[in-house]
């Protein structure tokens, strides 16, 4: 995919200019704004048409009809992060693509600041996935219209605190969605029984009511007791209509008032990169607690393959999180159990 910064900037700016006008933009004006020749502009427009943008040309100039504007997550739609994005229309899994790319340690990653003391996140984005991954190799349904990405970060942190990373990613996503959709800040009550309250369920679910809107998946590379590479798989149901009755999407909740996916993702990445600037994520757990629907509630813990591994599940009250994001459960006899993995019901 394109990773040339100038090409990404030109495409991003051309689209911004076309979208900001309800009328055709004169060729001379558009070329002047971009600082390119008319011939170069013609080539740029032709390429954008090939990529799915139905740009109309007439005597007055170029026009992109708002109702036909495709909702695609190309790198130039997500500036200033475009040079750190690998985009696929369709792939098996953004997580697998991201890990493959990081293992190769390509020169483009080094050039764009993904390695070094001030490493920046790299994003692998797909419009659809054929084998989207959830926890424990479960399948994440990934039709057109959702947001599916993996954030990859080359960062050395203690293994004991890496569980803060998915908690932070989930909490920041909830913050972003509440800012975009104020109705998600409300919880059901006698006066507002149909309010669409959003919450976080340990360890990685984003819920509206009891239905799943999104989720976070953590994958890591480890050397000794230190993590060297962090991969966060992030899935959000936006314009796709979930087939699972226990799932929900934003378009089901808010109809056609849902903004383009690029606007949602841009706001999220801006907040998330700011939150990730401190490597030990000391604010992650307090932030996650603000949105939890798990703490203070009865829970049932089950371990996949638990019977084979000799791990018995148990029930209790979720009372706190440990320093690494572990769930602390008080059982019926008053003892505290610290859960670092498993399913929580």
Percent range of helical residues: 25-40%
Structural class based on helices, strands and sheet pairing: alpha+beta
Q: How many beta-strand runs?
A: 14
| CATH homologous superfamily descriptor of the largest domain | Bira Bifunctional Protein, Domain 2
Low-pLDDT residue intervals, each spanning 5 or more residues: 189-193
Radius of gyration: 22 Å
H and E order = HHHEEEHHEEHEEEEHHHEHEEEE
Number of helices: 10
Protein model, in words:
It contains 10 helices and 14 strands. It is an alpha+beta fold and 345 residues long. The protein folds into 3 domains: 5-68, Winged helix-like DNA-binding domain superfamily/Winged helix DNA-binding domain (Arc Repressor Mutant, subunit A); 80-291, 2-Layer Sandwich (BirA Bifunctional Protein, domain 2); 298-344, SH3 type barrels, CATH 2.30.30.100. It has a 7-stranded mixed β-sheet with strand order 3-4-5-9-8-7-6, sandwiched between helices. It has a 5-stranded antiparallel β-sheet with strand order 13-12-11-10-14, with no helix packed on it. Strands 1-2 form a two-stranded antiparallel ribbon. Strand 11 and strand 12 (327-330) form a beta hairpin.
